[in-house]
Structures are given as structure tokens and as C-alpha cells.
Write a structure and sequence with these properties.
By secondary structure, this protein is an alpha/beta fold. Helices cover 30% and strands 23% of the residues. It contains 19 helices and 31 strands. The chain has a seven-stranded parallel β-sheet, sandwiched between helices. Bound molecules: adenosine-5'-diphosphate (ADP) and zinc ion.
């Protein structure tokens, strides 16, 4: 409709406020979603023809022309709407969101060989003669490239493209053979009554082909994965595609193996570490519909599914779904948006669902499916609290008598044990015994963490690393630097002394980099080549190790400091997950939580394994102050290289803050990480009643303040981190 005026809006992957107009050269036919090459200043850049009318702000004489339409499948309407939606929700420039989607778009990286095949066409569809001719041409040979297809059918290229836009044609690969498709007709395991009820409900949702959200709330080991496999089977049977989002794709090894056993073929995998060839292949198979199931990290949300029929978000409560830099968004929430745009159901799976999700359940927005017991009669582990005041470890050590005894017994019985400490490295602090100097990051308000195995001190915030200095950088004293506090490497060392016979496997994200290393570690555990696993949060989730019967949590109090809104909730989630690794088969499991504060409600909830009671308590604490999920939050993070610049803008923002009933602005205040990567940081927090949308307030607020170029203001809607 805008093309007749000879110009179209083109969205470019840069932080501009919106699309720019470009002239359509004579003879070029363009429609929204087309990927084009256009001049920008002195460069040629790739953009996407956007929807709506051209703006008309630039006069015809100054308008620049589109250089070329790229011969790649157009960006589909649902993805364009998702980009608009994310931009509006997070107050990001639409181009910055587009950039994420284009980074996923591997087609630009090589000349594609794509043609068209026929879509499933409903019998009551009326077709023009020309369109019928195109379908007939495809019946002879499938697939065909655009030009060949138009020729064989005797129609113009425009007809082919219009049919693609109308969903009558689907892109198809002209080149390589597709990966084998998972077979939904293979029989799954025999489900228990509870499992089949949940699976049946999900199957029905998938078959209805409309948007709804189900919370699959089941204790660890209850068979949530088996249940959502049934939903995936239903989706494949309907000829549609399914997306499974996992919080950490590095942990997916066991998932992939189980999936392959169930469906006879592996799913397509999507994450940022794929080789270029695999990326291209996967992107193409998703775009052609050849890939039936994709398992991926956050960025899989931007893949070009042709017919998305189901999204599963496993471990929905995980903060790893939140992207904390660039466009700050929560992939769980945006996946729900994408599903709505595609008329597909969503499954949120968790043993410890977030309070946000429960809020939506209680308000009737999400359906609640429960699996209250472990599969096959396995019982939940017994949880004991080890009071570190009553049973202190020996001087300089971290494991007290009861823990040591339990590990020894377990290993002697030929079972496996795991010690968990959510802290990478050897020690979180290096201190000079002579002068008291603490070794700090040169770029951040943070101590450097000793990684003894790698012989470095490193910053967990900016990645700065330096060799461990031989003497104190402050007073020069030799051999005076001492490691203070617990780190997982230290547990490995201590366990080595206590259990010299045991085969110990350290597992941390810095020592097991990449999915292959994690898979190899998991395989060794499964083959029982390991007696004792010592790990960080990488060992907490998802794994199913049948011979693991003891889990010891070295510092259960660790996550409770810091005053974060969700500190208690997150500690319960993490430790409950870790505990859930124990006793998943016949042999019963045991969990020891080492704590200085065993009376704390978090410890009590974990011991009693009474999560509903804990949630009720949390809810009661958050509700009166309208804290999430009973209210909404947005954070502004002001940063600058010069402290005075950050402070000044923070003060101006503070003075211009919105006010009114149900609106509170806290701050400005120095961020807990007052300096990060060399930038000084101030924070403001907007808290509003749940019925007030924060986006409108934020837009008004920011439009009232002009931000100098040396100052950056990041907006974090629904913040999870308060650093
Ligand atoms: P969750 O995802 O809830 O932690 P899983 O789906 O991993 O639970 O199931 C735990 C273990 O029990 C897995 O080894 C799984 O294969 C097995 N399991 C669950 N349900 C069944 C079933 N109906 N038949 C056979 N094995 C099952
Ligand atoms: Zn740093």
C-alpha cells in the first residue's frame, strides 16, 4: 500500500528511533519482511522492509534508493511483530532488537539455495488461476527456486512472492539433504496416571492450535520432561515445529540423549557457539520447516520458524533467561509473546516455579498442571540441616564432621556423592596478612577471585585477570597474601585430603567449558568412574544421575546476603534443585545443608520441602509494598567514566521522576557495583502498582531529560539483578 508512493520504511540494525524511508527503484517489487541492502552514510548495510506507511519526512530529492533485495527468505510477520513488541516493552531501539534477530539470521553469511514447496492448504481455500498454476508446477517438481517456479507456472515473480506471504508456499532447501526428523509416532514410556493427565492436557492444547500457557509444576524427578515430550510429539504429529528453551545449553547433553532415545533423531540445537556451517544448516532447516524441534538458548527465540506450534520453557524460574546487557529482556516472557503471535501453546516447566508464574496461575491466566511425586516410587531425599555453630569444621577447613562422615559412608557403599558450593575459583578474597590490603579489580568495585588451578586472580564481573602476585602489591611483603573464604577449588583440595581413595570430579563453568566437556563429565558419572562430584551451580540443574545418593551444600547461607528482593526465593530454588539431584532412582537420597542460620525460614522450608508454605510467606512479605509480582519494577542504571557525570544525570533524573498514586521512585543511589568496567554507576528504581504500565511512565520520564553523550542510561524493565 505504501509501495505505490515509491518509498518504503526500512528498519536498520542500529539504535535509531525507528525505520528510515528509502526509495524503491523502478521494477523492484518489495513487501514488508524483505531483506534489503541500502546505503547508510557511506556504507552499504542490511535492513528489513518494515510495515506501515513510509514516513515521508525526508523530501523526495534527498531520498536514497534501495541497492538490492537480497535473495533470502523474508522475515516473517510474526517475527517482525515480536521485534516491535520487545522494543516497546524494554524501551529499546527497534533496530537494536532487529540486530539480535539478524545475528541469528545465518542466511546472510552465504549464498542460500532456497526454493519453494507447497504448504498444507486447507481444502476450502479458493485460489486464483495463477496461484493454482504455481501449485500445479510444484506438484511436478518440488522444490523449485523462485525464478524457475514463475517460469514453469507462467506467472510473474510477484505471484510467487504473494503466495509465500499468504503462507501458501514454504521455503525449501534446494541443496543438502535435511537432517532426519524426530519421529512422533515412536511409543514413549508408559506414563503414570498423573503424568498422563498432564500430558493429555498439553496434547489438547497443542491440537487446538491456540495460545495458552500451562505451568507444569512437578517435584524433581517427577517426569516433567517425559510429559512435555508428549506435547512435542503432538506438535510434530500436527506437522508443526516446537521450540524448547533451556537456561543453559551447556547442560543439555543428557537432554539431547533422552530426546534422541524418545524420538529416534536428535533435535536441532541452537546457541552462540555453533560452527558457522552448523548455524547455516540449522537456520535453513528451521526456515524451511525441515527442523521439527529446536532446543536452544535465549537467541533461539529469533529463529525463523515457519509454523511454530509449541514452546517449552524448561526451568522457567531460572534467571539465566534474562539477558542483562544490550537489549535487556527476559527470554521466558518474550517467548510467551512469540507464542501468542504464533497461536501456539506454552509449557513452563519447573520444580520451583517463580512467584511471578504462580501469580499468573492464581489469576487464572496460566493453567496449573502438577506432578506431586517422583516417578517409579523414588522418594524425595531426606534433608538435614548441619548447624555450623554446633559442628564447626576444623580450622581452615570447610567440611564439618557430619558431612565428612556422610561422604565417606556413601562412597564406601559404592554410591556417588556431590558437594555443592556456588562459588567458582579457590577463594573470593586475597588479603595481605601484613598490611591488610585486599586485592581489588582495577575496573570494578569487586575483589579479585583466586583461581589456583589457573594460577590467576580474576574479576567475575569484567573478566580482568592477572597472575597471582608473589608479594603484596601494596606493602611489598613477600608470601603474605592469604586466600580468604570458600571457593569450589578449595573444596576439591580439602576433599582430596579427606578422601584420598575417592575419584573426585570438579565441575565448574570455567573448568568445563562448552557442551562437550559437560557431556563428557556426565558420561563419566553415569559410567560410575566418579565417586565424588564437587561443583558450582552447573551441577545443580537438570542432571539425572541414578547412583548419586548424597548431596552436601557447603554454604547454604551464601545467596541470602545482599538484600536482593529475590534472595530468599532464589536460594530456595537453587538449593531445592541441587537437593533434587540426590536419590533419583531406587536408593534413597540424603541432603546435608551446612548453615550458620538453620532457623532461617529458607532453611526451614528446604528441610520440610514445603515450597507452597515458603511461597505464601514470601508473597505475604512482598504484597503490602507492591513488590513483584504484586507490583512492577523498572531500573535505570546511569553510568559514565567520570563519577561527576553519572551523579549529575542521576540527580536530574531523580528530580524529574514521575509521581502519583501507586508510583514510587527509589534513588538515585550508587549501585552496589559502584564501578563496573571502569564506569561509575548510579541506580534509580521505579516501582508501580501492578495496574500501572511502566513503559509509558518511563517514556515520559526520559523524554524530559536530555542525556549527554558521555553518559549512558540503561533501562531494565522487570529487573532480576540489582547490582
Ligand atoms: P523431571 O524433569 O521432573 O526432573 P524426568 O523427566 O527427568 O523428571 O524424570 C526422571 C527420571 O524418571 C528420568 O530418568 C525419566 O526417564 C524417568 N521417568 C519419568 N517418567 C517415566 C515413565 N513414565 N516411565 C519410565 N521412566 C520415567
Ligand atoms: Zn572487574
Amino acid at each position: 500500500m505504501h509501495a505505490h508512493r515509491g518509498r518504503v520504511p526500512v528498519l536498520l540494525p542500529y539504535p535509531f528511533a525507528g525505520p528510515f524511508d528509502y526509495r524503491v527503484p523502478n521494477g523492484m517489487e518489495l513487501a514488508p519482511g524483505d531483506i534489503v541492502q541500502v546505503p547508510l552514510n557511506r556504507r552499504e548495510v542490511v535492513g528489513v522492509v518494515w510495515d506501515g506507511a513510509a514516513e515521508g519526512a525526508v523530501g523526495d530529492h534527498r531520498l536514497r534508493s534501495i541497492s538490492a533485495r537480497m535473495d533470502v527468505p523474508p522475515m516473517r510477520a510474526d517475527l517482525r511483530r515480536l521485534i516491535d513488541w520487545i522494543a516497546a516493552y524494554t524501551l529499546s531501539a527497534p533496530g537494536d532488537v532487529l540486530a539480535m534477530a539478524l545475528r541469528v539470521n545465518a542466511m546472510q553469511e552465504s549464498a542460500p539455495k532456497l526454493g519453494w514447496r507447497r504448504a498444507e492448504i486447507p481444502p476450502d481455500t479458493t485460489l486464483t488461476k495463477q496461484r493454482q498454476a504455481v501449485l500445479d508446477a510444484l506438484a511436478l517438481a518440488e522444490p523449485l527456486g523462485s525464478t524457475a517456479l514463475a517460469e514453469v507456472a507462467g506467472v510473474s515473480a510477484g505471484v510467487v512472492r504473494a503466495m509465500a506471504d499468504a503462507g501458501l508456499l514454504l521455503p525449501a532447501d534446494l541443496g543438502a539433504a535435511d537432517s532426519p526428523r524426530p519421529d512422533p509416532h515412536r511409543p514413549g514410556p508408559l506414563l503414570s496416571l498423573e503424568q498422563s493427565a498432564a500430558a493429555q492436557a498439553l496434547r489438547e492444547s497443542v491440537e487446538k492450535r491456540h495460545f495458552d500457557v500451562s505451568l507444569l509444576d512437578g517435584v524433581t524427578g517427577s517426569g516433567k520432561t517425559e510429559v512435555y515430550h508428549e506435547a512435542i510429539a503432538a506438535c510434530l504429529q500436527a506437522g508443526r515445529q516446537a521450540l524448547v528453551l533451556l537456561p543453559e545449553i551447556a547442560l543439555s547433553a543428557q537432554f539431547l540423549a533422552r530426546f534422541t532415545t524418545r524420538f529416534g533423531a536428535a533435535p536441532a540445537v541452537w546457541h552462540s557457539d555453533l560452527s558457522p556451517a552448523t548455524r547455516r544448516r540449522t537456520w535453513r532447516e528451521v526456515a524451511t520447516g525441515a527442523a521439527g524441534v529446536v532446543v536452544g538458548a535465549r537467541s533461539a527465540l529469533f529463529l525463523p520458524f515457519v509454523d511454530l506450534g509449541l514452546i517449552v520453557i524448561d526451568e522457567e524460574h531460572e534467571t539465566a533467561f534474562k539477558q542483562e546487557d544490550g537489549v535487556i529482556y527476559n527470554a521466558r516472557d518474550m517467548a510467551i509473546v512469540r507464542a501468542r503471535l504464533c497461536h501456539a501453546p506454552v509449557v513452563l516447566a519447573s520444580a520451583t516455579p517463580s512467584l511471578e508464574t504462580f501469580y499468573n496461575v492464581e489469576h487464572g491466566r496460566y493453567r496449573h498442571l502438577t506432578l506431586p511425586s517422583r516417578h517409579g516410587g523414588a522418594s524425595l531425599p531426606d534433608v538435614h540441616l548441619v548447624d555450623l555453630r554446633a559442628d564447626p569444621p576444623a580450622r581452615g577447613e570447610l567440611l564439618p564432621g557430619p558431612t565428612n562422615a556422610a561422604v565417606r559412608e556413601t562412597v564406601e557403599r559404592g554410591e556417588q556423592a556431590m558437594l555443592f558450593l556456588n562459588r567458582r575459583g579457590y577463594a573470593p578474597l586475597t588479603l595481605c596478612r601484613r598490611c591488610g590490603h585486599r586485592v581489588q579489580c582495577p575496573n570494578c568495585t569487586a575483589w579479585l577471585v583466586e583461581h589456583r588451578a589457573r594460577k590467576i586472580l580474576t574479576c567475575h564481573h569484567c573478566g580482568h585477570a592477572e597472575p597471582i602476585p608473589p608479594c603484596c602489591p601494596e606493602c611489598g611483603a613477600e608470601s603474605s597474601l592469604t586466600a580468604i573464604g570458600p571457593g569450589v577449588e578449595r573444596i576439591v583440595e580439602e576433599a582430596g585430603r579427606h578422601f584420598p581413595e575417592a575419584r573426585i570430579l570438579p565441575m565448574a563453568s570455567d573448568t568445563l567449558s562448552g557442551p562437550n566437556a559437560a557431556a563428557e563429565a556426565a558420561a563419566r558419572i553415569e559410567r560410575r568412574e566418579v565417586d565424588l562430584i564437587v561443583g558450582t551451580q552447573i551441577v545443580a540443574k537438570g542432571w539425572h544421575f541414578p547412583h548419586l545418593t548424597l548431596v552436601g551444600v557447603v554454604d547454604a547461607d551464601l545467596g541470602l546476603g545482599g538484600g536482593d528482593l529475590r534472595a530468599a526465593e532464589r536460594t530456595v530454588q537453587l538449593l531445592h534443585q541441587v537437593a533434587g539431584r540426590a536419590g533419583r532412582a531406587e536408593a534413597p537420597g540424603r541432603v546435608l545443608l551446612q548453615s550458620f542460620n538453620p532457623e532461617h525460614p529458607v532453611m526451614q522450608a528446604l528441610q520440610a520441602q514445603d515450597l507452597p508454605a515458603f511461597r505464601a510467606r514470601e508473597a505475604a512479605e512482598r504484597k503490602p509494598g507492591h513488590w513483584p509480582p504484586f507490583g512492577r519494577l523498572a531500573a535505570l542504571i546511569v553510568s559514565a567514566e567520570r563519577e561527576a557525570d553519572a551523579e549529575e544525570v542521576a540527580q536530574i533524573l531523580g528530580a524529574a521522576a514521575p509521581h502519583g498514586a501507586g508510583i514510587v521512585v527509589l534513588g538515585p543511589a550508587p549501585a552496589p557495583l559502584a564501578i563496573l568496567r571502569g564506569r561509575h554507576r548510579r541506580r534509580l528504581l521505579l516501582k508501580v502498582r501492578r495496574d500501572i504500565a511502566v513503559q509509558k511512565l518511563l517514556r515520559l520520564w526520559l523524554s524530559a531529560v536530555s542525556i549527554p553523550s558521555q553518559v549512558r542510561v540503561e533501562i531494565d524493565v522487570d529487573p532480576m539483578s540489582f547490582l
